[in-house]
Amino acid sequence: MDWNLLFTSFENILHPSVLLSVLAGVTMGITIGALPGLTATMGVALLIPFTFGKPVTESLAMLLGLYCGGMYGGSISAILIRTPGTPAAAATVLEGYPLGQQGHAGRALSMALFASFCGGTIGALLMTFLSPPISKVALEFSYVEYFSLAVFGLSVIISISGTSILKGVIAGFFGLLISSIGFDPISGYPRYTFGFVELLEGPAFIPTLIGLFALSEFFSGMEKSNGIERIKAVVRAFPPKEDILVSLKNILKSSFIGAFIGAIPGTGGDIAAFVSYGEAKRSSKYPERFGTGVIEGVAATEAANNACSGGAMIPLLSLGVPGDSVTAVILGAFIIQGLQPGPLLYKEHIDVVYNVFASMIVANIVMLFVGIIGIRFFVRVISIDKKILLPVIFVLSMVGSYAMRGNVFDLWLSLIFGLIGFLMQRYGFPLSPILLALILGPMAESNLRRSLVMSNGSWKILVSRPISVILLCAAVLSIGISIWNHKRVAARTK
Amino acid sequence: MKRWALVLCMLLIVGSVLSAGGKAEKFPSKPITAICPWTAGGGTDVLLRALAKETEKFLGQPITVVNTTGGGGAVGHNAIRQAKPDGYTVGMITFELNSLPPQGLIPFTYKDFDPLMRLNVDPPALTVRKDSPFNSLKDFIEYAKAHPGEVSIGNSGPGSVWHIAAGLMAEKTGISVKYMPFDGAAPAVTALVGGHLTAVSVSVAEVRGQVQSGNLKILGVMDTKRSGIFPDVPTFQEQGIDVTFGTWRGLALPKGVDPEKRQILADAFKKGFDSPEFQAFAKNAGLNLAYQDSAAFGEFLAKNAADVELVMQKLGLAKK
Q: Distance from CA of residue A126 to its chain's centroid?
């Protein structure tokens, strides 16, 4: 670690014109993140052409600002209107939305911001100081480990099942079934597409997400639109001291989980957030209260998905391998600037590497300030009359569903999943397991298939590697503990 | 006062209608839409956006890139095909337009488009880890022959261009390998860097970074000439294996656009293509530019479609 160079980099980033780029990036990121259907990946992709002619430091600072802001922005709509602005914020809905509905939107929003800031900063610091060793472990992940990681992630379904494990598992399997629509990942044979080319790559994720969460809420809001009282919200920029104290441990733990999951190529903030949520619930003294608005849940998910940004930059910088979908696009931005991330970048452009470190840390601080100013405006959304808010949610959902692929088909897809989500909720089925299965199902399937191709069909390969064995054991343990917790709570309430 | 305002409004409306009528002869008089069948931020998208940005100046109208994606490119190609042939919609067509029909996944072919120009061709390369014992194609093929089914070659998806490339090589040399499809080229390259594959058969541009970083090495390029980025790497033909292959990208219009408008578009995009800014961008991005005009591109498409179908049938990737 070259401290002098690090300080010089901070000087570079704190230069007014660069700082302005960071500010612009963060503000754009928060906006894009908060709007359902527009993700940080898309924001970065759309911004890249505008950075062609700019100096390297400025353009990277702006893109990284957008990345950090986008990760946080998703939580705003998740808490206020139950629509995760980005997939990474889907787990934040679990605790954030109930909190908002109970009149604690200010608390939830300020905790999301605080946890995002802590997580993002811890992720950035890990990236600054531990890139080489972490990236080495990340590369060790072969198909077998990816499969086991996906299984471990899927085991979280039990803990996000709510009151009935059976219904949660049914929802999870329903999600896995849907995730098998589209091209077979190994043979390329189209499955369950019913002749729709739009389904060849499976049902598009963003429209499905928007349908399940936002539109289902729209439908159930319409049903009971008479006589809803307005929800009051207290504006607060910082979470109350008690909230911070009770969440601190979770923020730290989730930041590390998030950064590590982010560092594994091909995984992202969505998985990190769910795994951290499962861990927060498992280690809690009152797991039965999870799902009804527990502030630690918001802290865990938001710390994890923001820490993931720093984590995902680790393999990008030190190996030239992107850690998630956003960094894959950022890799393109590097290349267009004539830079090749990887060992060569460390050798020839170490100044750029340090500027990235400094940018990430500064971006998180800027995000904190923009967020503090923004919260007082965001929070008012929840007090808007439902008669006005619901149509707005509907329009936003439709725009968001269309924006991702520019396909009218996706509007229907979103509506259908809205209806499915509405009915499932009405009969007490949780929705998050479907989502988790949609994220992890394809990862589990394709990597299991690749493992079996490698081993010529022998299943022993799954227990032939140590990391895989640990992950599989963790999955079994996680399921066991969740079921035991559930039984204990059931016995207590009897 | 009110009456005056009304008269003024009427005049303005009539005036604007008249002026619009007068302008109708000049093409283009409104923004152009460019459809990209692949996701924002991907290689095709970045190429199209860079070209659009430079071409706007020569066209005198903004060009809006729209990503219509899904179905392995099928949805976007269909959107181009079905766009109104008024010259205000152009589209990027890619290799998949020739590989989707043999799989029976789309009911149309390159014949349903008016090719405007070819932009680039990227050849695949056989790439292995730097520390692998193979130093030439010969080493690799001899080993694969002695150990059938042991060597694994990663590609960017089942039935994708690089899957076909690996199949073509295996077919020509009579080796039996494991094809390992990934969701795009990047994860395949990552798996190779991590040591979970023997080789990958993706493009030179896609392995460039890892080769320059010293993690990977290229054994051969499936092109008629050596790569501009790695002039030291011999082609397949030089090493005695007569295989050439590549993916391509180009611009096309829906059938039936007025020839004059077509010419205006072709000229403007050619100027954008020749601009120093675009050329510099392509160089940085490691894109192998390979311009062809409308007629040559049309002939190329016909030949490529026939070749691809033949290979896919041999590999069992075609429907019949």
A: 19
Q: What is the distance between the alpha carbons of residues A328 and B182, in angstroms, rounded to a whole number? A: 15
The pLDDT assigned to A225 comes to 62
Q: Does A405 contact B at CB distance below 8 Å?
A: yes
- Subunit contact A200:B71, Cβ cutoff 8 A: yes
Q: Is the dihedral of CA A475, A133, A130, A357 positive or negative?
A: negative
Give the closest-approach CA distance of B132 to chain A in angstroms.
17
Number of domain units in chain A: 1
pLDDT of res. A358: 95
pLDDT tens by residue, A425-449: 999 999 999 999 999 999 999 999 9
Judge: A343–B105 Cβ closer than 8 Å, yes or no: no
Residue B220 is predicted with a pLDDT of 96
Residue B87 backbone zone (phi > 0: left; psi -120 to 50: alpha; other: beta): left
Q: What is the DSSP annotation of B149-181?
A: TT-EEEESSTTSHHHHHHHHHHHHHT---EEEE
| Helix A90-99 vs helix A56-81: crossing angle, to nearest 10 | 50
Query: Using CB atoms and an 8 Å cut-off, which of residues 161-180 of chain B contact chain A?
Result: 178, 180
How close, in Å, is residue A254 to chain B by CA atoms?
26
Inspect the interface and report whether the beta carbons of B158 and A188 lie closer than 8 Å.
yes
Q: How far apart are CA A413 and CA A409, in angstroms?
A: 6
Question: Selecting from 3.40.190.10, 3.40.50.10990, 3.30.365.10, 3.10.450.50, what CATH number does the domain B125-221 have?
Answer: 3.40.190.10
Please state which CATH class domain B30-121+247-315 belongs to: alpha beta
Record the tokens describing residue B80, joined without a space: 């181009």
Q: What is the ipTM of this complex?
A: 0.85
Q: Which domain holds residue A235?
A: 3-493
Query: pLDDT tens, A322-350?
Result: 888 899 889 888 887 878 888 888 888 89
Q: Which residues contact B82 (CB under 8 A, 6 or more apart)?
A: B254
